[in-house]
Structure prediction request, 250 residues.
Amino acid sequence: MRFQDKTVIVTGGAGGIGAAIASRFASEGAQVIVTDVNGDGAETVADGIRATGGRARAFAADISTAEGCQSIIADVMATEARIDVLCNNAGLMRRGNILSITAEDWRLSFAVNIDAMFHTCAAALPHMIAGGGGAIVNTASQWGLHPAPNHIAYNVTKAAVASFTQNLGRDYAPQKIRVNAVCPGEIHTPMLESGVKRSGRTMADLDKLVPYGRVGRPEEVAALVAFLASEEAAFMCGSLVEITGAQAVA
Ligand SMILES: NC(=O)c1ccc[n+]([C@@H]2O[C@H](COP(=O)([O-])OP(=O)(O)OC[C@H]3O[C@@H](n4cnc5c(N)ncnc54)[C@H](O)[C@@H]3O)[C@@H](O)[C@H]2O)c1
Prediction:
């Protein structure tokens, strides 16, 4: 129960990894705000948490705009009056190299994958500092550190998430706000399944490419996020932690 009575925000909470993160924090005593542009999906995740005795509520917001990001923080401050943990997990993947990706997909990738973190953090940090400290955990990607081919917008935005995390970690450690990022490899979620379908491969093909013998599970990323947000990781600030089953980017 490391998060008893803590308020935790999870963006992209309707998705594969986000739902697992939300459930993990709730199972350790947190009040979780499950937020997503997919409001019905967020409701389903929050309902599932409450059905198993946890505390959660859904909040629909589109984080591709500054107003959408700010609405999440404003809602949580109006209802919970504090923010202990902010998990910037929402993200999207647009395939393509510089000649095939559209300018619209390039801009949307930046809006959702990195600009949104600027807006949620800028809105949340004053409240977290006033509350005496807290933790921010960003979902970056192994591909932001070691680019996979043909995903330039995704890789560049995730590299920006990595640098953003290091910068914020450095700037706010004195105020006891710890900012870290997880950098997952292949994790079995709807995002991965749609990518695998597009590439003409199967999930079994993908399992064979991972030295550990299978792709990762959302719950395994959630356990790492919870560790980074907990007091057990008290001396971790600005760290980028890979979770990949030892798979190298091909
Ligand atoms: N699955 C993987 O293999 C993998 C690997 C590395 C990193 N990641 C990262 O993990 C995070 C979660 O990915 P996932 O695999 O669970 O994908 P997912 O597609 O299952 O979940 C992503 C969620 O983000 C939400 N979202 C997208 N655009 C939004 C917007 N404008 N406003 C609010 N919410 C929005 C979606 O509705 C969805 O619920 C992403 O940041 C992704 O880049 C995933």
